[in-house]
Amino acid sequence: DFGIGIINYQGAILMGYQRGLELGPLNKANDIVLDQLESYKVDAFRGMADTMRVLFRTLSGEEPIDWELLDKASRRDVTKETLDPSKLLADCMFFITSVEVALYHRRYEIGEGLLRNYIFLTGEDPSAITRFLRTYNVGIFAASNYRETGNRHCLPRLRKAIKQLRHIIKTRGRIWAHRTLLLEAEQLSITMKNKLHSGIQHAYNIAIIAATKAGCIQDVALANELAGEHYARHGCKAMAGSYFVHAVDYYKAWCCKSKV
Predict the structure, then answer these.
(1) Entry's PANTHER family (predicted)?
(2) By the 8 A CB rule, do 135 and 119 touch?
(3) In degrees, to the nearest 5, what angle opens at C-alpha 33 toward C-alphas 126 and 28?
(4) Model confidence over 34-68: pLDDT tens digits?
(5) Three-class SS string for 203-215?
(6) Could you tell me if 233 and 198 are in contact, meaning their C-beta atoms sit under 8 angstroms apart?
């Protein structure tokens, strides 16, 4: 059936994005979906493709980011709304792709609001990819919040996320094991008293190596960026600069617009 084929094709594009494939080819593949939907006059499946198009084009710099829209969406409380079941897939994709944009640009407050709505909308979805995205992003935001606020309630959330990711990886495959390693590096960076301990650098480097072996370009870039932020925060300009240079190079290889 056409509908099943389109959904599977879009699912492959989403998986390609999560596996770190370049944004340019993913955007072209997604445009093929939109062309097919237009040719066959099928609007029921446009929501996912439309949101993926916005994600690819905003990250690559082809379109500006509508921060006002994302901020407004982050303040929504979907638990109190009457939801249209026919738009559920589109809504889920809007929230998770918007989380990706907010994460890349370090707009954590907006990202957390978007993530809360995504978690609610996908609460009944048992798929590994959905569970992984929910848990991984909870961990990333928990680490960033702890740094910014010192709120110790963030640490249990981070530890729980790491534990859950280990279980998902053990039972459903190891293709994102490097993301668990990155969260473990983040945990070390905020819990170790000696912020320049070699164990922290080792943890980040292990995450970088694992992401490189997995071929996940954006996660190699993110791990370098987070490591650079850690050392910049604690006055090690040379180490921070080295990590930041690698982050920029990998984001460029991913066809992503530089933030600097």
Answers:
(1) HYBRID SIGNAL TRANSDUCTION HISTIDINE KINASE G
(2) no
(3) 105
(4) 998 888 777 767 888 899 999 999 999 999 999 99
(5) HHHHHHHHHHHHC
(6) no
110-161 tens-digit pLDDT: 999 999 999 999 988 888 889 999 999 999 999 999 988 888 899 999 999 9
pTM for this entry: 0.91
Provide the residue count of the chain. Answer: 260
Contact (CB, 8 A) for 173 and 167 = no
Among 132, 106, 112, 115, smallest CA distance to 14 is for: 132
DSSP for the chain reads -HHHHHHHHHHHHHHHHHTT--HHHHHHHHHHHHHHHHHTT--TTHHHHHHHHHHHHHHTTSS---HHHHHHHHT--GGGS---GGGHHHHHHHHHHHHHHHHHTT-HHHHHHHHHHHHHHTTT---HHHHHHHHHHHHHHHHHHHHHH--TTHHHHHHHHHHHHHHHHHHH-STTHHHHHHHHHHHHHHH-S-TT-HHHHHHHHHHHHHHHHHT-HHHHHHHHHHHHHHHHHTT-HHHHHHHHHHHHHHHHHTTPPP--
